[in-house]
Amino acid sequence: MPPDDKSIAERIRELAARVESAAFGCTFDLANPLRRGLDPPTEIRALGALVRRVHVKDTLVRPGDVRPGRGRVDFAACAQALGEIGYDGWLTLETPRALPPLVARDLSFMRTVFPSLAGSSAWPRFGAFSYEHAAGEWERLVADFDRLGVQAVQLGSELLDECLDDPGSAAERRAFLEEHGIAVAGLAGYRNLVSPDASVREANIHHLARCLELAPSLGTYVVATETGTRAATGDWTDSPENWGDQAWRLLNDALETLLEVAERTGAILALEAHVKNVLKTQGQLLELLERYPTPHLQVVCDPYNYLSRHLVPAQERATAELLDRFEDRFVIAHLKDVDPLGAEAGSPAFGTGAFEQGPYLDFLRERRPDLPLILEHLPLEEIPAAIERVREVASLPLGAPA
Predict the structure, then answer these.
(1) What is the DSSP string of 347-360?
(2) Greatest pairwise CA separation for the chain in angstroms
(3) CB 356 within 8 Å of CB 316
(4) Rounded distance, CA 375 to CA 132, Å?
(5) Measured CA distances, 266 to 236, 276, 326 (Å)
(6) What is the rounded average pLDDT of the residues 78-90?
(7) Pick from 367, 343, 363, 357: nearest CA to 388
(8) Cβ pair 302, 277 in contact under 8 A
(9) pLDDT above 60 (res 401)
(10) CB 348: neighbour CB atoms within 10 A?
């Protein structure tokens, strides 16, 4: 057999025979055999006990060019082969340099492939917006969240404005929240990026830029925003212009400005689509992510917002496609519901609308348990009932601490 026709396993076994030492072994990379037209699980079985360490990455064209699970490596088959040879050593992520929320996703993925890996925290971890808390009401927020069983906040409105007005206080606010077991899951920087009023549009982009600069001081990487609408009558009114070239030119201009800030500050701009905004469909989201191939642009996991009245009858298929296609791009998750007439008609509290919540919760628990679950569109006093509905749908013990 010509030397170039030998597999990786054959070459390593020949070397092991020459070395004749029990100390000899190899590090096996799950993606590298694919470059030579080989099958990683077959190579693992052929190497057997010679596999002493395992590197984890994926590949489409080049090793490491996609997050684990998004390329050609059959991780389930590799895990089975490693189990058959009795491997119980380290699994080392050899993935591209990434921000912590993206690494957290990779770890979640690995735990779906290797169930024996211990989880980092209990699921679910509930969060809420800070919209009902006025400036200065940090102690009230902590007391409310403790009473409600909420461990994360998407910080917005007056408390966020307070930090923006006094950036030097952000680290102190973060420490206070962390001391009481509350993490800042993200900033609610929501602004209309395509407003027909140029001065408003400029102010909105400036506001989001300041949020991106502030985020690290508050202990988060995520700044969430909608894309906005061209309607002059309100930020949540649809317009035929939202489909037009001008709206998309304005959105692209805004994203280019904001992503430059995000890359400079190490933050993440997370887009939240909505059927009344410029960004309203999965195809448009995919186009944006391909246009801006940066880890600093990610997605708010909010499948409800994509369900127009036309898609409500097909919601199971549409939602499954969304969750699978963008699984590795989500950095924060929302829990709410959809009006029977679609998201354009309303977004009621979790479990009170027409959305099939079970598959979504299964996805969050099984594939993205790292994401905080932000309860949306409900007053604080309604949070306990929503949490109980979540637990009931997810078949979790009712009334237990989150």
Answers:
(1) --STTSSS--HHHH
(2) 79
(3) yes
(4) 13
(5) 30, 30, 21
(6) 95
(7) 357
(8) no
(9) no
(10) 18
> d(Cα 353, Cα 386) in Å, to the nearest integer?
12
Q: Are 75 and 66 in contact (CB under 8 A)?
A: no
Q: Is 252 exposed, middle or buried (0-12, 13-18, 19+ CB in 10 A)?
A: middle
The CA–CA distances, whole Å, from 340 to 43, 124, 242, 390 equal 52, 27, 24, 19
Domains of the chain: 3-96 (3.20.20.150), 126-393 (3.20.20.150)
The vertex-17 CA angle with 16 and 23, nearest 5°, equals 45
Of 17, 68, 7, 66, the residue nearest 41 (C-alpha): 7
* 268-305 pLDDT, tens digit each: 999 999 999 999 999 999 999 999 999 999 999 999 99
Tracing tokens 């692209």 back to the chain, one arrives at: 252
Model pTM score? 0.93
| Residue 390, both tokens | 């979540």
**Cβ proximity of 301 and 271 under 8 Å:** no
Distance (Å, rounded) from C-alpha 210 to C-alpha 205? 9
- C-alpha 135/C-alpha 138 separation (Å) is 8
Residue with tokens 């919760």: 361
Instruction: List, for residues 201-222, the tens digit of each pLDDT value.
Output: 999 999 999 999 999 999 999 9
- CB contact at 8 A, 69 and 92: no
pLDDT band at 402 (very low <50, low <70, confident <90, very high): very low
